[in-house]
């Protein structure tokens, strides 16, 4: 009787009953095996690599099962909320191709299980809180909050010394109804706490789809269910929301693994079945200073922020492929055997996920980027590079727009070959590698920097002779034959002084002649096919550069 009276005392004017709410959120019309996953960030800052990793897993599990992937905002920690990060998180995963089937969006809720923002679901939580009070599984706590983390740790250490356990029963759990009424009449703020019924030595099972079943110590803490501002923390809000939205699999970081005992007891008290869990391993890296493996740090590692990658010019498609490679052990082999397949055709399997911490490697990511970019058309690379440059290098974006045909033709060199070029890892490489194709940004002083191993007079004579013989209309075979003929006439490959001193450097062919032409036209000895470069530059530009 006391519990029902207490429930009415604490929650006298609830908008809903639990029974009404359950009818508002009927079961989804899905077939067996179709999974429902959710990406549920807190709008408290940037989207980090761990969050993104989880969203990738969420999306692929739902996609491969023909299920639902939805977006929920867990914004109950209002003190830490950063304005605008709700839309930021949603837009960011959409940019990478992970558009939710339903959920919160910057333009309003989309779906039948709204609202998808926890701060708008307080009346729902109050109904379940009242139910727990009626069942005798929750009580009001009038204690003042600890000063901070240090005080909490000190209390835990003291309890361990005295009892060798961490039974955290709140003193207010045994208040009489009259004492509670007195505190309420005095206007004391209160939080609602779970009345844990577990004992020291009790165990609970953690069901994890990757790690398997593990037995751990049952919850012994009277945890807060509703804060004194009437807002629930994550341990109470997420079981209710996942139950009502019929989430079947929850993907979250392994830091939540030890909390499953509490979550299990809350599920049990609510009378609902918990979802299946996947606790993803923490992504690590090699510390540049120590050479040791460590977790990512928000303070030390700019690449922990998912924004880092696109700002640096890493293609979003490549970042997704690399993260999939971290998430599923056989992805790399699949990509080798299916080089042109759409990324969403990949048959993601939970069984291929590992429980050990994956290592993030920017060098490996660069290799993935090169492979991804090599499979794209020249126009696709151009459009993606232009979009990136408009945000992060607007001057280069103007150059690309002004020289669109030349840029696409340059990017197309060697692209359709059996072994296509893989020299571009990030969009900034287009500018770095091919600056010589754009007069607006090319430093023509580079054309004077010939390899010192060549005799300057021989180089000068050869270039002058070749300029007179140059025919832009030559096909590739004719062009090559003309280069060889001019070189021989100049004595470049047979009887010049350097050849006599070091014949091994020339080998009686046109390799060195082409190298000299390459530097004379581009300022570098590393370019794609020289003949095609000259065709793209055009006759006028070639002749002008040979005159410098």
Structure description:
The protein has 548 residues and is mainly alpha-helical. Among the domains are: 5-12 and 121-280, Rossmann fold; 377-437, no CATH class; 444-546, Arc Repressor Mutant, subunit A, CATH 1.10.10. 44% of the residues lie in helices and 9% in strands. It contains 23 helices and twelve strands. A three-stranded parallel sheet has the order 1-2-3, covered by helices on one side. The chain has a three-stranded antiparallel sheet with strand order 4-5-8. A two-stranded antiparallel ribbon has the order 6-7. Helix 3 links the parallel strand 1 and strand 2 (68-71). Mean pLDDT is 90; it is low at 156-165.
What would you say about this model in short?
This protein is mostly helical. It has helices at about 1-10, 20-25, 50-65, 85-95, 120-135, 150-165, 175-185, 235-245, 260-270, 305-310, 315-325, 330-335, 360-375, 380-390, 395-400, 405-410, 430-435, 455-470, 475-490, 495-500, 510-520, 530-535, 540-545, and strands spanning about 35-40, 70, 100-105, 140, 190-195, 205-210, 210-215, 225, 250-255, 275-280, 285, 295.
Shape: elongated
**Strand sequence of the main sheet, in spatial order?**
1-2-3
- Looking at CATH, the homologous superfamily of the domain at 5-12 and 121-280 is HUPs
Instruction: Describe the sheet with the most strands.
Output: 3 strands, parallel
Structural class: mainly alpha
What name is given to the CATH topology of the domain at 5-12 and 121-280?
A: Rossmann fold
Identify low-pLDDT runs.
156-165
Q: Span from first to last CA?
A: 99 Å
Rounded to an integer in angstroms, the radius of gyration calculated over CA atoms is 33 Å
Mean pLDDT, rounded to whole units?
90
Oligomer: single chain
**What portion of residues belong to β-strands?**
5-15%
From the coordinates shown, what is the CATH architecture of the domain at 5-12 and 121-280? 3-Layer(aba) Sandwich
CATH class type of the domain at 5-12 and 121-280: Alpha Beta
């Amino acid at each position: 009787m006391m519990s029902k009276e207490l429930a009415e005392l604490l929650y006298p004017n609830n908008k809903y009953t639990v029974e009404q709410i359950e009818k508002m959120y009927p079961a989804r019309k899905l077939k067996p095996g179709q999974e429902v996953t959710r990406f549920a960030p807190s709008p408290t800052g940037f989207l980090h690599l761990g969050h993104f990793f989880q969203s990738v897993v969420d999306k692929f599990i739902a996609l491969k099962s023909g299920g639902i992937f939805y977006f929920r905002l867990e914004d109950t920690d209002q003190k830490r909320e950063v304005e605008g990060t709700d839309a930021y998180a949603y837009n960011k995963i959409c940019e990478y191709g992970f558009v939710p089937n339903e959920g919160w969006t910057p333009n309003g809720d989309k779906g039948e299980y709204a609202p998808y923002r926890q701060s708008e679901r307080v009346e729902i939580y109050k109904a379940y809180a009242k139910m727990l009070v009626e069942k005798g599984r929750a009580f009001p706590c009038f204690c003042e909050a600890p000063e901070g983390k240090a005080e909490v740790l000190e209390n835990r250490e003291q309890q361990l010394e005295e009892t060798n356990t961490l039974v955290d029963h709140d003193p207010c759990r045994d208040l009489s109804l009259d004492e509670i009424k007195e505190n309420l009449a005095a206007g004391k703020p209160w939080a609602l706490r779970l009345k844990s019924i577990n004992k020291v030595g009790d165990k609970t099972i953690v069901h994890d789809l990757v790690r398997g079943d593990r037995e751990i110590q049952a919850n012994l803490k009277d945890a807060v269910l509703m804060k004194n501002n009437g807002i629930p923390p994550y341990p109470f809000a997420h079981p209710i929301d996942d139950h009502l939205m019929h989430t079947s699999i929850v993907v979250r970081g392994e830091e939540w693994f030890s909390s499953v005992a509490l979550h299990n007891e809350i599920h049990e008290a609510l009378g609902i079945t918990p979802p299946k869990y996947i606790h993803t391993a923490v992504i690590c890296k090699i510390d540049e200073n120590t050479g040791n493996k460590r977790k990512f740090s928000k303070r030390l590692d700019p690449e922990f922020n998912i924004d880092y990658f696109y700002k640096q010019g890493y293609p979003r498609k490549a970042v997704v492929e690399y993260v999939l490679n971290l998430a599923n052990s056989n992805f790399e082999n699949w990509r080798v055997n299916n080089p042109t397949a759409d990324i969403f055709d990949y048959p993601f399997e939970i069984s291929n996920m590992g429980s050990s911490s994956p290592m993030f490697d920017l060098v490996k990511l660069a290799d993935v980027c090169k492979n991804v970019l090599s499979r794209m058309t020249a126009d696709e690379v151009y459009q993606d590079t232009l979009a990136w440059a408009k945000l992060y290098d607007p001057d280069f974006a103007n150059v690309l727009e002004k020289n669109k045909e030349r840029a696409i033709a340059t990017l197309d060199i060697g692209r359709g070959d059996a072994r296509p070029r893989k020299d571009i890892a990030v969009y900034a490489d287009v500018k770095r590698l091919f600056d010589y194709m754009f007069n607006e940004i090319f430093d023509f002083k580079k054309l004077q920097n010939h390899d010192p191993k060549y005799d300057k007079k021989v180089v000068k004579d050869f270039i002058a002779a070749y300029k007179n013989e140059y025919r832009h209309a030559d096909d590739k075979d004719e062009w090559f034959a003309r280069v060889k003929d001019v070189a021989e006439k100049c004595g470049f490959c047979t009887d010049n002084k350097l050849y006599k001193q070091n014949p091994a450097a020339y080998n009686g062919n046109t390799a060195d002649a082409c190298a000299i032409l390459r530097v004379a036209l581009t300022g570098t000895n590393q370019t794609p096919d020289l003949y095609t470069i000259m065709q793209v530059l055009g006759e006028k530009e070639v002749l002008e550069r040979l005159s410098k």
